[in-house]
Amino acid sequence: MNKETISDKQGKALVILFIIGISIIYESGIKAKKDICIAITSSLILAFLLATMYARITYIFSNKSLFDICEIRKKDYQKNR
């Protein structure tokens, strides 16, 4: 079984992207004032939908990375033009 780890650089990038994402949610909540729960709920729903789409794509193209999948779709698109 392969043991996969992330590097320090990838870990820092994950933390930075998490902080940016949370700040966007809170900023929209501040603009919404009393409706902050609606802003957070809608952002969670959208994040769940994106994660579900990504999971489905990786299920369809098993053993391929996201970059490989994009390359396959690019070749199919160019072939059908």
In words, what does this structure look like?
The chain has 81 residues and is mainly α. It has one domain. The chain contains three helices and no strands. Helix 1 (8-32) runs antiparallel to helix 2. The radius of gyration is 18 Å and the shape is extended. The model has no long low-confidence stretch (mean pLDDT 77).
What is the general shape?
A: extended
Q: Assess the beta-strand content as a share of residues.
A: under 5%
Poorly predicted residue ranges? none
Mean pLDDT: 77
Continuous helix count = 3
Major sheet characteristics: none
Structural class: mainly alpha
- SSE ordering: HHH
Rg from alpha-carbon coordinates: 18 Å
- The count of DSSP E runs of length 2 or more, i.e. the number of strands, is 0
User: Oligomerization state of this entry?
Assistant: single chain
Q: How many domains would you count in the coordinates?
A: 1
Instruction: Bin the helical content.
Output: over 70%
Quickly describe the structure.
With 81 residues, this protein is mainly alpha-helical. The protein has one domain. Helices cover 80% and strands 0% of the residues.
